[in-house]
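Is this the right way to post structure tokens for a design question? Let me know if I should format differently. Anyway, here goes:
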């Protein structure tokens, strides 16, 4: 039996640009809302069957065709930029078709103006406004200019709600974008700080722990004190601490994790030939984009020799 041809041979679809993916659902929902207003306005003023048919094609079918355009185009981003300009031109023509209703026309103008300004600044805003005007002027000249700015209470109310809702939604998107940008910037600064922190302590014991205090990385200098399997990834850092100091070690890690701040402590670690080494440990948190501790960097320095020297000096003085 012959195999059916692959549909991708005729319609090679690719993953669209991020802008096209972001705009797809809002365009479809906004145009569906516009269709509701247009339908009520047509009911108020009356219209032929072809106007109703074209309204359905424009506000229901067109958003999906625009998205399909971004998936088949070789340059998905450019295709979506052209879609935004086409939105302005077509909505301008519909403003003329609806006889220039004041509040509805403002809503039709607001959408493409905000979208073009958000994706291209003043230049694309100006182009979008010109295309909206060209669509209104061109279609108005074709069917005859008939200005009826007044609309019924329901159409006016829905138009005002649409204008306020769409503008507010754009504001929420801008807030979310700025928040994610600030989080990314903070995470980058925190990462740079951690690199400086590690670089300044090169040659000392550097341990990178997960949020549960298990090793993710240990510097080669650990081999001076313990076997490699003692600080392998997944092993507990606390297991290298003297049993009497483990509660302090646990509190040390918990303080770093909960307070998201740098902490210091001295612990007995790494029993070598039955002798415990006294280490001064400094821990720093590594925060994720939400401000939560995802890793802990602990830099440890052996201060046993210094402590012995201090004790010897004190004994000599005594």
């Amino acid at each position: 039996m012959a195999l059916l041809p692959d549909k991708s041979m005729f319609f090679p679809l690719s993953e669209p640009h991020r802008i096209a993916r972001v705009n797809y659902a809002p365009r479809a929902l906004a145009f569906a809302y516009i269709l509701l207003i247009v339908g009520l306005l047509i009911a108020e003023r009356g219209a032929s069957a072809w106007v109703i048919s074209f309204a359905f094609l424009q506000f229901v079918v067109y958003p999906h065709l625009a998205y399909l355009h971004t998936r088949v185009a070789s340059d998905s981003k450019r295709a979506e930029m052209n879609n935004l300009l086409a939105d302005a031109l077509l909505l301008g023509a519909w403003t003329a078709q609806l006889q220039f209703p004041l509040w509805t026309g403002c809503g039709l103008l607001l959408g493409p103006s905000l979208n073009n300004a958000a994706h291209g600044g003043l230049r694309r805003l100006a182009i979008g406004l010109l295309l909206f005007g060209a669509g209104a002027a061109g279609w108005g000249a074709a069917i005859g200019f008939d200005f009826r700015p007044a609309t019924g209470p329901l159409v006016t109310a829905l138009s005002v709600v649409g204008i306020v809702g769409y503008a507010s939604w754009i504001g929420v998107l801008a807030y979310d974008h700025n928040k994610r940008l600030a989080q990314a910037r903070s995470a980058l600064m925190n990462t740079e700080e951690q690199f400086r922190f590690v670089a300044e302590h090169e040659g000392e014991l550097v341990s990178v722990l997960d949020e549960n205090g298990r090793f993710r990385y240990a510097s080669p200098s650990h081999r001076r004190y313990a076997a490699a399997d003692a600080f392998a990834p997944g092993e507990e850092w606390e297991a290298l601490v003297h049993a009497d100091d483990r509660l302090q070690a646990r509190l040390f890690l918990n303080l770093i994790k909960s307070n998201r701040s740098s902490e210091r402590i001295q612990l007995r670690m790494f029993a070598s030939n039955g002798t415990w080494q006294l280490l001064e440990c400094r821990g720093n948190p590594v925060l994720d984009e939400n401000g939560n501790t995802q890793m802990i960097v602990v830099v440890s320095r052996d201060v046993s020799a210094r402590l012995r020297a201090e004790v010897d000096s004190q004994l000599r003085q005594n």
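Format looks fine. Someone answered above. Worth noting: The chain has two domains: 11-183, 201-317. The domain at 201-317 is CATH 3.30.450.20 (Beta-Lactamase).
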